[in-house]
Amino acid sequence: MAPVDHKTMFEIYREQDYNRAFHCVFFTELDEHNRGKEIARAAAGETIYSGFVHDHLKEPAREIILAIVDELNDMDEASASMSPAEIQRRLGDFLA
Fold first, then answer.
1. How does DSSP assign 18-77, residue by residue?
2. Cα distance between residue 31 and residue 62, in whole Å
3. Residue 41 and residue 71: Cα distance in Å, rounded?
4. What is the CA radius of gyration of the chain?
5. Which site in 15, 33, 49, 93 is 20 to 30 Å from 41, CA atoms measured?
6. pLDDT at 73 over 50
7. Is 69 in contact with 61 (CB distance < 8 Å)?
8. Burial class (CB in 10 A: 0-12, 13-18, 19+), 61
9. What is the pTM assigned to this prediction?
């Protein structure tokens, strides 16, 4: 039997309401208590980037993802964006 590739699905998204803040969610880490709420929040937002990271590299990948979210939130409203190619470049070898 082939080995299972353990990976964690994540999404960086932007709220559509007045705040327009950027957030990230790691879907495969959600539990029964917050799953529905977090998925609904992400689904209501604008997807900036989504993908999978290798489980064994999840913690360093999380640091980079959170840094990207912080950077986006620190930009002014008019210039708050980052291309998917730039996000992919920054995540590099962490992506599954």
1. SS--EEEEEGGG--TTTHHHHHHHHHHSEEEEEEEEEGGGHHHHHHHHHHHHHHHHHS-G
2. 18
3. 20
4. 14
5. 93
6. yes
7. no
8. buried
9. 0.88
**CA 40 – CA 35 distance, rounded (Å):** 8
Residue 70 is encoded by which pair of tokens?
A: 């912080």
Token pair listed for 74:
């620190």
Question: How many Cβ atoms sit within 10 Å of the Cβ of residue 68?
Answer: 20
Rounded percentage of the chain residues whose pLDDT exceeds 70: 95
- Tell me what pLDDT residue 4 has: 54
For residue 32, what pLDDT band results from cuts at 50, 70 and 90? Answer: confident
Look-up of token digits 């929040």: 41
